[in-house]
Amino acid sequence: MQWEPDGPNPCPGLLGKDAQALDSRGVLAGTKRPFLGLSDGGNFSGADLSTADLVNAWLKRVDLRCVNLRMATLKHAHFLFVDLRWADLRGADLRGASFAGSDLRHADFRDTDLRGARFGVVSTADGWWGCNLQYVSFDGAHFEGATFQEQVIWPDGFDPVALRAKAFSEEGSE
C-alpha cells in the first residue's frame, strides 16, 4: 500500500514548546534519567527524537504531531489520547506498545516492529474513542501477535489479520 497523504504536510517548521526538554536519547535536559512519562498537555510537536530510548514510556494527551521517532525504541510504551498525526516512526521498535484513543492519521510506520502491539479504544464519559489509522503507511511493518479492536479505523483496503494481527473484544478476549 502506497503512503499518500490527502493534504499538504503541516510539519515543516513546527516545533513544540516542550521539545527542547528532551535530548536525542530521550533524556530530560539537565538530568541523566530517561524520560518515562508525560501527561495532559505536553507539546513535543516537531521534535527530533530519532533513536530515542523510550522503553515503557507513558504518554497521555500529549502532542507528538510531526515528531521524528525514526529508529526509536518504544517497546511497551503506552500512548493514550496521543496526537501522532504525521509522525515519522520508520524503523521504530514498537513491540508491545499500546495505542488507545490516539490519532495516528498520516503517521509513517514503514519497517516498524509492531509485534505484540495493541490498537484499542477507550471508553470515556463522551463515548468510545478508537485509534484513527487513516492514511497510515505500514509497508514492511511486522504485525505478528499485534491485537486490535474492531472500532479501530484502518487505512482503506488494509487487512491487519492478513499480517497475523488478531482482533480482540472490549474484554480483551479474541
Task: Please characterize this protein's 3D structure.
With 174 residues, this protein is mainly beta. It has a single domain (38-174), classed as E3 ubiquitin-protein ligase SopA (Pectate Lyase C-like), CATH 2.160.20.80. Helix content is 0%, strand content 16%. It has no helices and eight strands. Strands 1, 2, 3, 4, 5, 6, 7 and 8 form an eight-stranded mixed beta sheet that branches. It is globular and about 35 Å long. It starts with 36 loop residues before the first strand and ends in a 7-residue tail after the last strand.
Give the beta-strand count: 8
Q: Radius of gyration, rounded?
A: 15 Å
Uncertain residue ranges: 1-6, 13-18, 24-34
Shape: globular
Total domain units: 1
Q: Outline the biggest β-sheet.
A: 8 strands, mixed
Mean pLDDT: 76
Strand content: 15-25%
Cα distance, first to last residue?
A: 27 Å
CATH architecture: 3 Solenoid
Helix content: under 10%
CATH topology: Pectate Lyase C-like
Order of helices and strands: EEEEEEEE
Helical region count? 0
Q: Spell out the CATH superfamily.
A: E3 ubiquitin-protein ligase SopA
Top-tier CATH class: Mainly Beta
Give the class from helix and strand content and strand pairing. mainly beta
